[in-house]
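Much of the work behind modern protein science is quiet bookkeeping, done one molecule at a time. Below is the pair of lines this work produces for a single protein:

***
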Amino acid sequence: MERQLKGIKIMTQSLKKMTQVKRIGFDFEGSQAGNDSVIDLNETFRMMLSLQFVELNFASCYQIRDDGLKNLENLDQNPNLKEIKLNFSQCEEMTDQALFYISNFFQKKQTLKTIHINFQSCSHITDKGLISLAEGLKKQTDLENLTLNFENCYQITDTGYASISIALKELKHLKNANFNFSLSEQISTQFFDNLHNLSDSLKAIKLDLSNCPLVCDKNLISMSQGFKKLASLEDLSLRFSSDQQLTDDCLVNLASTFKDIRSLKNLHLAFEGCMKITDIGILSLSENLKKASYLEKVALNFSWCESVMNEGLDSLSKCFQRLDLLGNIHLNFEG
C-alpha cells in the first residue's frame, strides 16, 4: 500500500508539468487509495489548464472520506473544463458532506456540459446531501448530459429525489438524462410530480427505478404526462422491475404517450417481475406503438409477468409489422 501511494504522489508531481493534456482519467477501484490521493489529484488537475475532461473512479475504496473532495472546488480555475465524472460507489464512509463539496464546485464552475455522479450504495447519504447537490445542478445552465446513480442509498426519501426532478426544470439545454435510483425504498409521488416540466431539448432519458416498493400506477401516469411535451425525445429507457404495485393502468397510460412523441427512435421498457401486468397492458402497448412510426429499435422485458399470454405476444407481432423503420427487436418474456 505504501509503495502504491508513493507512486501516486510521484505521478501527480509529473502531471503538473503536462499543461497540454486535455483529457485525463484515473481508475483506482478497489484499491487502498485514501483521501490524500484524491486531494493530490484535484490539486494536480488545477494546474493542468488545458483539461477539458476529468474522470475519477474510486469505487470500493473503503478508506476514502468526505474530505478527499474538499479541494474539488479549485477545479473552477480550469477555464476549459467541460466534463467531469466521479465514481465513489460503495465508499462506505462517504456522507452528505461529500455532496456539499461537489455542490460548491458546481456553483463556482457553472459552464459544464457533462456531469456523471455515482454514489451507489453509500448508505450515509441522506436528503440533505441530495438537496445540496440539486442546488449546485441548478447553476449548470449549459449542461447537456447528466448521469446520477444513487442506487441503494436507502436513507434518501422522496423529498431528496424530488429536489433532483425540480432542478431538472432549470436545465434548459439538457439533452441526455440518466438516473439510477433503484432499490430506493421511499421514492414516490413528489419525485414523479415534478417531472412535468422537463426541458423540451431532451433527446434521451434513461430511468431505473427497479425494486422501489412505493412506485405505483399514479406515479407513472403523472410521469407520462410530462413525456408528452418532449418533442425532441429520441431514446427512452424505463426500468421498473419488481415494482409490485404496478398494474395494466400504468402501461396503458404510458403507452398512450408514444403517439405524441413523433421523434421516438429507440424504446426500452423493462417490467420484469411486475406480477399484476397482463395482456390488457400489452394490447394497449401494441396499439399505441403502431403510431410510433419513427421507431428503429424496441427492447421489451416482461419476464416473470405470469399473466401475459399468447394474445399479448400476438398483438406485438402484428404491431411490429406496421413499423417500416424498425430494424432491431429484443423481447424477453421468460417465465
